[in-house]
Design a protein that fits this description.
Layout lengths: L4 E4 L1 H5 L8 H12 L3 E4 L5 H10 L6 E3 L4 E3 L9 E2 L4 H9 L6 E7 L4 E3 L34 E6 L4 H11 L4 E5 L6 E6 L4 H12 L6 E5 L5 H6 L2 E4 L13 E2 L8 H10 L1
Parallel strand pairs: 1-2, 1-11, 11-12, 12-13
Antiparallel strand pairs: 3-4, 4-5, 6-7, 6-8, 8-10, 9-10
Helix pairs in contact: 2-8
EC number: 3.1.3.-
Organism: Streptococcus downei MFe28
InterPro entries: Cof, HAD-like_sf, HAD-SF_hydro_IIB, HAD_sf
Length: 270
């Protein structure tokens, strides 16, 4: 069998709702890797928020963060690293429209740190930023923004985050990608134009001398559409958003709460 590249989204896909990965899933994915297949986390999450899952699975190769804006090998130097940035002027524009976008908080994300607005500090869950608590030095102030970020992360209290994402794309004349996170949080993430999970996977496959036909991708949300369409085999989770289904070749029989990824891979590869 041709050795596969297996791209795994995290929230709503590999992770259960409590952010855990079951022992069964870990054992199964390690068996898959032992067969020579390569597992790659491909997530909207920042690096620091996905490192625990990377280590739990015992991975050592590339990981893709920020919906494709950062392709790297954690804690290592790698010639294939690719870091895409958003012009910081877009960040200032979002701040100017903070109320119009019904924003709870906005974070400017970099590989190793972030800055976040704190007018609704009580609404910020520290765990989604991979830190034990939100402290004053993390506050987003315009004078701190001297570098272009990899991504912007926004929580909104809008009733329909998908409609708001469309409105924000239109506001920026489609010069930014705006996608929703999987899971229950009302989170939108902004990426550079034409940067998405498929963009990063194309770069990675070229580095690995693999083709899209060698790629199996699992996802559950809007930000997985391009990835599933690009993959030789795109698999939607049983709990996936209806928007994703037209882009999928198959659907898991089980949800993310039921080890859907692991059970599907066991059937396909073990």
């Amino acid at each position: 069998m041709t050795k596969k590249i297996i791209a795994l989204d995290l929230d709503g896909t590999l992770l259960r709702s409590d952010n855990s990965i079951s022992d069964y899933t870990v054992k199964t994915l390690r068996k898959v890797a032992e067969q020579g297949h390569q597992i790659v986390i491909v997530t909207g999450r920042p690096y620091r928020m996905s490192l625990a899952a990377y280590k739990r699975l015992g991975l050592g190769g590339p990981m893709i963060n920020f919906n494709g804006a950062l392709t790297h090998i954690p804690e290592s130097k790698w010639a294939g690293e690719l870091s895409m940035k958003i012009d910081k002027d877009f960040l200032f524009d979002v701040l100017d429209h903070y109320q119009a976008f019904e924003t709870d908080f906005l974070a400017s994300e970099y590989r190793k740190n972030f800055y976040i607005t704190m007018d609704n500090r009580q609404l910020i869950p520290p765990e989604i930023f991979g830190v034990p608590k939100i402290i004053d030095k993390m506050e987003l102030k315009p004078e701190k923004i001297t570098r272009d970020p990899n991504a912007l992360l926004m929580q909104t209290h809008a009733a329909d985050k998908y409609l708001l994402a469309d409105e924000i794309r239109q506001h920026f004349d489609n010069q930014l990608e705006v996608d929703s996170w999987g899971g229950p949080l009302n989170i939108l993430e902004f990426s550079p134009k034409e940067v998405n999970k498929a963009f990063a996977l194309k770069h990675l496959l070229e580095r690995l001398r693999k083709s899209p036909q060698d790629l199996i991708a699992f996802g559950d949300e809007h930000n997985d559409t391009e990835m599933l369409a690009y993959a030789g085999q795109g698999v939607a989770m049983k709990n996936a958003s209806d928007t994703l289904l037209p882009y999928a070749d198959a659907m898991t029989k089980f949800t993310n709460e039921e080890d859907g990824v692991a059970k599907q891979l066991a059937q396909l590869l073990l």
